[in-house]
Write a structure and sequence with these properties.
2 domains
Amino acid sequence: MSQMATEKMMPKAFSFRTRTRDVLAVGIITLTGLGIAFTTLNSLDTIASFSSLTFLFVSLGVGIANYRLRAITKSNGTVIISGIVVVVVTIGLLLFYMGNHERDTLSAIGVLYGAVFAADLLFSKRRLILVSRNS
């Protein structure tokens, strides 16, 4: 977290440490508060589905990265593409199921992802680069 704040991927306040124990107090307090809010305001279904979907998106990202680096990683492109297809189909099936049977859960997950993307736009280094180019 401190490294991300130093690289301007998070607010600078997350890089501050306490004097006595070298602890990232702001980050710990913020993450604890967000964790409490997340678990208190959402159902177990929402938490489980959000976690599963996030895991699938991360797996998709890893598969795409591996495909792009296949010359370096010496990976089999066919196997990588097969894995990516399986992950994409799984994401599609999960979203289809939630759309038909758990619309409230799907809506809550949409709001959560919206909040994550909004925070990324607000604090991301990429945004800072875009703002400086447009100035």
